[in-house]
Amino acid sequence: MKNFSTVGNRLVTAALFAVASVASAAPLTCEFRADAPDQHVVVKGDTLWDISGTFLQKPWCWPTVWGMNRDEIANPHWIYPGQIIWFDRAAGRLRLGNPINANGAGDPSAQRLGPRVRTDGLGADAVPSIPPGVIEPFLTQPLIIEEGDLTGAPRIVATQEGRVFLGKDDKAYVRGDLQGNTSFQAFRPGTPLKDPVTKQVIGYEAFYLGTLKVQAEAKPGSGSDVHTFIVTGAAQEIGKGDQLRAMPPTPIQNYVPHPPAQPVDARVVAIYGGVTHAGQNQIVSINRGKLDGLDIGAVLQLYHSGATVSDSTAKKSWFGREQQVKLPDEEVGSLFIFRTFKHISYGLIMQVTAPVQVGDVAKSPE
Fold first, then answer.
1. Tally of helices (H runs) and strands (E runs) in the chain
2. Is the separation of the CB atoms in 275 and 358 below 8 Å?
């Protein structure tokens, strides 16, 4: 069995006994499944979430049983097809090792290997956290526009030969501060997103239109502050008045599923696609983001918010009114956060026992 590939002695190893879990502030109890196997051979197509679910009752407990620190959670490029994950039942930990041969070599009790980062070809074949194909369109397109994001954004003020809409290779004339950037995305603000609790508009779901690149910047002293752009890709029709944002860097996608570092209590703001209910592998937005303690890979539990009902069994008030009581929230699934904005995040529904709807609760695991 091929072991870790490394460059020199540069290995990043999890301190399995000394490092505290970087989960939420409250202690978390991570329980292994009663039917957890002794080992799992990693194969192509596995995800960290799937592997976690093979051993653990709650996949978000993954960092706890490895004893991982924050850097290792952010860069978990240490599990590859062909490797074996052992369940060390005595220690209550998972370990990465080699298969046992006739001479006993590879016995995890002797090697005690922990997660490592291999530094050559980093992440090329590493096991991803979740199925990447589901979320790829959401990773680099703006999609969410929050308060202040539009301030000073470059905008298309004219089109080539006065055309109503632009397509690939057409010219667009743009005004605004480019801030040294050369590649941009075009978008158009769309549906307002309202906080289910405050009822205030907290952002807009933008329409992604395509990509543009600077052909010639406005020259100082030329009498014109208009830049010339070329449309390099068009997903929808691009026209006058549409706004531009600098192309974001390619995001790191392979984050370990983990609880947020601080307590989070959020609500589902919208379900992507405009439908009223969502199931497994569908995408929702919630009213909490990076400034509220969420990062990529954070896992939240989903609940149906308990309804407020009348208690006809209790004594009525002196006005003759029945007492109003709130029913408990009912857990319905898990949400994997894969993109964060300031106060809004996108999450992928991982498992559900009932359809998720706008207003449902998403909060830190208990």
1. 5, 20
2. no
Distance of CA 196 to the CA centre of its chain: 21
93, containing H or E segment: strand 93-97
Structure-token pair, residue 87: 């369940």
Distance CA 292, CA 263 (A): 9
Token output for 168: 């690939």
- DSSP sequence for 219-283: PTTSS--EEEEEEEEESS-B-TT-EEEEPPPPPP--PPPB--SS--EEEEEEETTS-SEE-TT-E
- Exposure letters 284-296 (e unless 16+ CB within 10 A, then b): bbbbbbbebbbbb
Closest CA to 38 of 89, 111, 98: 89
> Could you list the mean pLDDT of each consecutive 10-residue stretch along the chain, which spans 366 residues?
27 25 48 92 89 89 76 67 88 72 43 39 67 77 78 91 91 95 91 89 89 95 94 93 85 75 93 86 94 92 88 80 87 92 92 91 90
What tokens does 6 get?
């490394």
DSSP string, 168-219: TT-EEEEES--TT--EEEEEEEEEEEE-TTT--EEEEEEEEEEEEEEEEPPP
Contact by Cβ (8 Å): 199, 358: no
> Degrees (nearest 5) of the Cα angle 162, 168, 173?
40
The residue with tokens 């400034």 is: 291
CATH code of the domain occupying 265-363: 2.40.10.410
Q: What is the DSSP letter of 23?
A: S
pLDDT of residue 73: 67
Angle at the Cα of 168 (from 166 to 172), degrees rounded to 5?
A: 45
Q: Who contacts 220 (Cβ-Cβ below 8 Å, separation ≥6)?
A: none
Q: Which two tokens stand for residue 3?
A: 């072991």
> Can you give the residue ranges of every domain in the chain?
39-129, 138-246, 265-363
DSSP for residue 318? T
The pTM of the full predicted model, rounded to 2 decimals, is 0.73
Q: Considering only CA atoms, which of 294, 363, 286, 291 is closest in space to residue 330?
A: 363
Task: Look at residue 141 in the predicted model and tell me its pLDDT.
Answer: 78
